[in-house]
TrEMBL record:
The keyword Lyase applies. Keywords: Cytoplasm, Histidine metabolism, Lyase. One of its GO terms (biological process) is L-histidine catabolic process. Its EC number is 4.3.1.3. It is found in: Cytoplasm. This is Histidine ammonia-lyase. It comes from Robertmurraya siralis.
Length: 506
């Protein structure tokens, strides 16, 4: 995978993260890096006053630094800013952060030496992923705390994930024959002034959310069969009459998933119309796809953005302190992502209720094999309701908050990293809700008659039954939910034309 600083896509990131593709750099990008670095060295030599190169940081921007202290300045920056706390980011997020930071530096506006970028990519290619705490970023001035922890291993400090273990960075580097580097003028600042933590978390979240959105349609199709849903609501003319492309495509996929099913009905056969949680699948799920498309667009812009400060132009003739490190665009996108995925859980939980409530269907109460003696799926619906309620709290926008920092020099921040973390939690919760719907939908459809299912949903059911048995008596359903959740995360995907059980883990 060749990085240029300008052409990285989510598809490529998926291959780098899921398939462990290696990365390299275009020769043209190296030329830009060398030119930018030469500009920094001239600034130091000429004793020009330039933020972060010959001055302190933040409120200390007016404090001049002698050129003999530039290395100490950069080291102090990394040490003092490495204040991350809490649970650490998933290893895939750390890997994404390395790639994104290198890609941003390759644009040639940051003034770092070639060795710095080479070391970032060497970590990627040898599977050395820094341990980065999730909490501590305000999402403006960049993701200062998380990125400082990302940089520590380059210096031979901190911890990394390496070959399935969490170890001291120097230990992994020694095994791979990698030597620590010493940061020089501007390099520490260039490495941590950026939005790569929130963007990396956003990428991993988006990839899982996109997959989950397809799976939600697959599961909803099986629920339609268990409830003898009315397929007329998915008619193409209905969708075209409104005009949203995403709604049209969801309805198209639902028709393909249910093609050949003898369990779905036409309007008037059993009832005139279904409840919204069935009838409005194209409208609600389609709206989530609209958000996913928006988030994808913003992530792909940010993945190729120069987000540090200051930026160097025209070979150093123009060096400008701006605000590209401000995470507001990604903060909005992450909040939007969380809200959209939370809605997939909301509507899924309502379908679960229709599957288990005997007043809303003609199935055994709570899908129980012996109603009364056996509780069946009764409390699984409780669990789904709890997860949905938690999502509503997590979906509160992080981006509407701001707390001044650095003695009010940095007086408005994005909280985008919090938004990205909350979105990821919502995605995990939604997967659990959909896992519960999957269990209930399989039970209901099989009660109605497996032989009457569509070829696609029947294949899904048969694959699912290898992991989750038919409910013949009460058991510890937490185990079933965990198995279904893992199946959704690692195995089940769906394309427009067929269901594919290829493993795809983030």
């Amino acid at each position: 995978m060749i990085l240029t600083g300008n052409t990285l896509t989510l598809k490529q990131m998926k291959e780098i993260l899921l398939e462990q593709k290696s990365v390299s750099v275009s020769e043209e990008s190296w030329e830009k890096v060398e030119e930018s670095r030469a500009a920094v060295e001239k600034i130091v030599k000429d004793n020009r006053v330039v933020y972060g190169i010959t001055t302190g940081f933040g409120k200390f921007s007016d404090v001049l630094i002698n050129k003999e202290h530039v290395e100490e300045l950069q080291l102090n920056l990394i040490h003092s800013h490495a204040v991350g706390v809490g649970e650490v980011f998933p290893e895939s997020v750390s890997r994404a952060m390395l790639v994104l930071r290198a890609n941003a530096l390759l644009k040639g506006y940051s003034g770092v030496r070639r060795i710095v970028i080479e070391r970032l990519l060497e970590f990627v290619n040898k599977g050395i992923h820094p341990v980065v705490p999730q909490q501590g970023s305000l999402g403006a001035s960049g993701d200062l705390a998380p990125l400082s922890h990302l940089v520590l291993p380059l210096l031979g400090e901190g911890e990394v994930f390496y070959k399935g273990h969490r170890v001291e960075a120097l230990k992994a580097m020694t095994k791979e024959g990698i030597f620590p580097i010493t940061l020089t003028a501007k390099e520490g600042l260039a490495l941590i002034n950026g939005t790569q933590a929130m963007t990396a978390m956003g990428i991993v979240g988006y990839l899982e959310a996109e997959k989950l959105a397809y799976q939600s349609e697959m599961i909803a199709a099986m629920t339609m069969e268990g409830l003898n849903g009315i397929i007329d609501a998915f008619d193409q003319d209905v969708q075209i009459a409104r005009g949203y492309p995403e709604q049209i495509r969801v309805a198209e996929r639902m028709r393909e998933l249910l093609a050949g099913s003898k369990l779905v009905t036409k309007q008037g056969e059993i009832r005139v119309q279904d409840a919204y949680s069935l009838r409005c699948i194209p409208q609600v799920h389609g709206a989530t796809w609209q958000v996913l498309n928006y988030v994808k667009e913003k992530l792909e812009i940010e993945m190729n953005a120069a987000t540090d400060n200051p930026l160097i132009f025209e070979g150093g003739k123009k060096v400008i302190s701006g605000g590209n490190f401000h995470g507001q665009p990604i903060a909005f996108a992450m909040d939007f992502l969380g809200i959209a995925i939370a809605e997939l859980a909301n509507i899924s939980e309502r379908r679960i209720e229709r599957l288990v409530n005997p007043q809303l269907n003609d199935l055994p109460p709570f899908l129980s094999p012996e109603p009364g003696l056996q509780s069946g799926a009764m409390i699984m619906q409780y669990c789904a309701a709890s997860l949905v309620s938690e999502n509503k709290t997590l979906a509160h926008p992080a981006s509407v908050d701001s707390i001044p920092s650095s003695a009010n020099q940095e007086d408005h921040v994005s909280m985008g990293t919090i938004g990205s973390r909350h979105a990821y939690q919502i995605i995990a919760n939604t997967r659990r809700v959909l896992a519960i719907e999957l269990i209930c939908a399989m039970q209901a459809a099989e009660i109605k008659g497996k032989e009457k299912m569509s070829p696609i949903t029947k294949d899904i059911l048969e694959e699912g039954r290898k992991k989750i048995p038919f409910i013949e008596k009460d058991r510890v359903f937490a185990k079933d939910i965990a198995v279904a959740e893992d199946w959704l995360k690692t195995s089940v995907s769906i394309t427009k034309k067929k269901v594919n059980f290829k493993v795809e883990t983030c």
